[in-house]
């Protein structure tokens, strides 16, 4: 969409868009009234039934794992045992309230957003989509929400608990607290909480008028010029509502600042415990106000930094500062003045490239990363199936029991390792996930889950670059990942791996184990499990139809019934999902 230039053009764009916007808003509201209660009821009753039904098992198993684990020390176990009943008893209440609010929000906003998305760019037959989008797809999406919550309660929770009760390694130490540090921390909390609450609330109140006026100014400018949140049609109703309700947003910001100030005070006690210093806790209490002030300045585009004092509250930072001062003092006394002048003469200030608005738009979305991973698993799954590294028994076990390390852990780990090898050979700065798409820090999704993935993967890619894997070793790695334990270099003695270097073998095995750990954490995301089961079902039916395997008749009948039920309601959202995932990734058939 082209942004109009000039006052008259902007004014005409605003006036001509208002009737169109009102009609879409009315249509979306009608669909929300008709479809919303059904979707809200599905989410509310489904999630509440699952969480409350599993609550006794979660209560007992959580206590059992906390008492059995070796990763928590005795003092911390006693403290957790005393405090744990409160959140566990509140869980059913929070589940009911959260399911009710989440169901209402989902049932109202999804049909409304789907109505505006139907008139977006790249949508054919917009009139039909305006009436149909957000109806059956909303109900199917509500069922998907219940299924994801069920997967989390049944599988992800128990997977976390299994990791908790695993035996520790020889180099690991249990997590515990020192009783001698607690009085100091409690005293700091008693001092820091009232001070931080008072000071941070005062800063928030002082800057609230500026937030109100600047917010109104920016939103009104975007409304007239059809820029910012008003550029995309789907965002218009929410952006227009933001103008009306902006004072409430400012009040909410002040209230949120008030409650967050308690966290700053409690964190001061944690700093005092970690640094074993009363002074460091007081230093953080003072720095917290400056940190909050600097954050609000950045948020409101005010001056950089803060005029409030910000003392260092980490002993390591203080030592680094003293070391740096000593180095500067030493160089100043030993180097001649002419040499220092020469250094200053050739010194240049390096400016870091700032992120532009277009770079923000081109940032990959999480669904596109998922699409690449599952597409890669699909293509590699066919190859491994043809080579006999994946059997019908493996797929039937995963379909019937819902678990199987070879498929859910080893197959995605091999896909990621293959991407890392390809990126290392091409000397890419990031991860090369297709012929024309390179994932870097600039376009990587900023969700926390993906942030935790990118850093380790980039480090592993640099390690792969140093190992210099050739084609024969790469072909052998595929078999080793899928069939071997990969715990020690001797496990590869009879595997036919081309290299006899035990150091290289040990490094590759460590990389494989780390990738499998990353995939294990990814598999706990409910959407991962749902999509991976659908992938295995599709591969299973495809292999049977091609005659590659002889599947069980009962499993085949069950898979066909599940696939048929999965297809209900998918037509309403398939076109949008396909378009959103393929626009940026392009060709993801590269494996």
Question: Which short descriptors sum up this protein?
Answer:
591 residues, two-stranded antiparallel sheet, disordered C terminus, single chain, mainly alpha, 1% strand
Structure description:
Helices cover 74% and strands 1% of the residues. The chain has 21 helices and two strands. A two-stranded antiparallel ribbon has the order 1-2. Residues 325-345 are annotated as: Disordered. This is Steroid nuclear receptor ligand-binding. The chain crosses the membrane at residues 42-66, 78-109, 186-208, 229-248.
Give a short summary of the structure.
The chain has 591 residues and is mostly helical.
Structural class: mainly alpha
Mean pLDDT over the residues: 78
Q: Would you list the SSEs in sequence order as H and E?
A: HHHHHHHHHHHHHHHEEHHHHHH
Distance between the termini: 35 Å
3D shape: globular
| Poorly predicted regions | 332-361, 568-591
Number of helices: 21
- Which bin fits the share of residues in helices? over 70%
DSSP strand tally: 2
**Mind summarizing the main beta sheet?**
2 strands, antiparallel
Beta-strand proportion: under 5%
Strand order of the largest sheet: 1-2
For the CA atoms, what is the radius of gyration? 29 Å
């Amino acid at each position: 969409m082209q942004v109009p230039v000039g006052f008259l053009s902007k004014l005409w764009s605003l006036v001509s868009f208002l009737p169109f916007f009102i009609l879409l808003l009315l249509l979306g509201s009608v669909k929300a009234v008709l479809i919303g209660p059904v979707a809200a009821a599905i989410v509310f009753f489904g999630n509440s039934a699952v969480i409350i039904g599993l609550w006794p098992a979660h209560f007992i198993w959580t206590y059992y794992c906390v008492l059995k684990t070796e990763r928590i020390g005795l003092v911390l176990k006693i403290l957790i045992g005393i405090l744990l009943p409160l959140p566990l008893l509140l869980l059913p209440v929070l589940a009911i309230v959260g399911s009710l609010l989440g169901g209402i929000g989902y049932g109202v906003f999804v049909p409304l957003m789907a109505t505006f998305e139907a008139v977006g760019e790249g949508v054919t037959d917009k009139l039909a989509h305006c009436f149909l989008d957000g109806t059956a797809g909303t109900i199917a999406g509500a069922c998907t929400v219940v299924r994801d919550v069920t997967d989390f309660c049944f599988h992800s929770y128990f997977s976390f608990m299994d990791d908790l009760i695993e035996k520790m390694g020889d180099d690991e130490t249990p997590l515990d607290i020192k009783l001698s540090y607690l009085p100091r921390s409690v005293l700091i909390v008693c001092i820091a909480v009232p001070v931080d609450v008072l000071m941070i609330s005062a800063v928030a109140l002082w800057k609230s008028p500026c937030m109100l006026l600047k917010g109104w100014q920016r939103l009104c400018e975007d409304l007239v010029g059809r820029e910012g949140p008003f550029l995309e049609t789907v965002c218009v109703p929410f952006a227009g509502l933001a103008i009306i309700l902006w004072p409430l947003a400012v009040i909410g910001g002040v209230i949120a600042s008030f409650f967050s100030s308690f966290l700053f005070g409690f964190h001061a006690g944690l700093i005092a415990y970690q640094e074993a210093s009363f002074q460091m806790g007081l230093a953080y209490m003072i720095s917290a106000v400056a940190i909050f002030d600097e954050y609000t300045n950045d948020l409101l585009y005010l001056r950089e930094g803060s005029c409030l004092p910000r003392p260092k509250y980490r002993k390591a930072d203080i030592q680094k500062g003293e070391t740096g001062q000593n180095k500067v003092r030493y160089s100043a006394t030993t180097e001649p003045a002419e040499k220092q002048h020469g250094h200053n003469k050739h010194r240049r200030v390096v400016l870091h490239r700032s992120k532009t608005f277009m770079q923000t738009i081109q940032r990959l979305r999480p669904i596109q990363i998922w699409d690449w991973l599952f597409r890669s698993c699909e293509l590699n799954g066919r190859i491994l199936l043809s080579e006999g590294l994946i059997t019908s028994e493996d797929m039937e076990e995963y379909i019937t029991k819902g678990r199987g390390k070879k498929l859910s852990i080893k197959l995605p780990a091999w896909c990621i390792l293959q991407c890392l090898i390809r990126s290392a050979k091409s000397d890419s700065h990031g991860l090369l996930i297709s012929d024309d798409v390179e994932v870097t820090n600039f376009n990587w999704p900023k969700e926390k889950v993906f942030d935790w993935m990118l850093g380790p993967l980039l480090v592993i890619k640099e390690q792969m670059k140093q190992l210099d894997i050739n084609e024969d070793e790469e072909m052998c790695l595929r078999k080793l990942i899928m069939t071997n334990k990969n715990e020690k270099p001797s496990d590869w003695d009879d595997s036919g791996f081309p290299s006899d270097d035990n150091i290289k073998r040990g490094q590759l095995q460590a990389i494989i184990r780390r990738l499998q750990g990353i995939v294990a954490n990814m598999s706990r995301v409910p959407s991962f499990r749902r999509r991976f089961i659908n992938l295995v079902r599709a591969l299973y039916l495809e292999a049977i139809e091609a005659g590659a395997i002889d599947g069980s008749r009962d499993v085949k009948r069950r898979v066909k019934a599940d696939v048929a039920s999965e297809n209900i309601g998918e037509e309403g959202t398939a076109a949008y999902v396909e378009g959103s995932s393929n626009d940026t990734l392009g060709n993801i058939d590269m494996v």
